[in-house]
Amino acid sequence: MMEELKARLGPEVLGLTVFLLAVMLVFSFLSDRFLTAANFGSVAVQLPELGILTLAMLLPILSGGLNLAIISTANISALTVAWVLQVNGGPEAGMGAFLLGAALALAVGGAAGFLMGAVTAISGAHPILVSLAMMIFLRGLGEYLTRGGDISGFPDFVAAIGHGSLFGIPAPLIVFLACVAVWQILLGRTRLGFFTYMVGSNIEATRYSGVDTKRALMLIYTLSGVMCAIAGIVMMARFNSVRVGHGEAYLLITVLACFLGGVDPFGGFGRVASVLLALVILQILSSGLNLLGANQHLSTAVWGLFLIAVMVLRFGWKRWFERKRGKT
Q: Among the four 124, 228, 243, 295, which has the fewest Cβ within 10 Å?
């Protein structure tokens, strides 16, 4: 039975599911407020913005790269929406202005991603350096445009997008789940998804096999930028304001979530489902510790220890499997 489940779900998904159930069981004994609708509602509201940013990070990592500019891209995209709303009356702006701003934000995010992908593909520069330069540029541009302050004063329906619900499901969570579905289809059923894994596994072999790796990298980073823009819009709606520094703490956590989800740090392997489970585990850990009265910084420390433990366990499992296979 266990072998059948492992074959269907994969060892990463099965292992993370078991760990998630174990974490929930422990916290349910430690706090009588854990297994409540209010707690899970809080998790559902807090998860989407981190989750969407993690999806933006996932594609570059799968391709063997990294996108350090996800937060800056999200914020400059949100600034685009805010600017359109301000020009069209601020709190009195209509839905048409918001949709126009959202479309321009997606274009800005996609353009930032495309530029990173083009520079990486054409010049051969490492994605870390390229995305770091883009992060500095976008952050500086945002600071210049906002003078280091916040932009607020949006129509009421913007706050409803960040805090509203549909059939009892928080609106941001619906957006996040839709993004998960798109990424699942992209990576599992499209040529670009297949090329992404190939590029991450061995870019030179992929190039020699006839794949246009430059075009693939440009598309990968463009889609990452578009996903950043979606995250920026969700954060703007959640906070009801825009500031260049919003969400900066999420950058390293998105990388953490990808690695916890079994994504190979060198690219070529990873699944959306396992990353989703890793995100849920991180949020459940944070929520459970918060209910126990722990400081938020302790949650961050626990996340780091969790990653170290997972790496040690994976190393031990790999060595045990290799020895077992050697004996047979």
A: 124
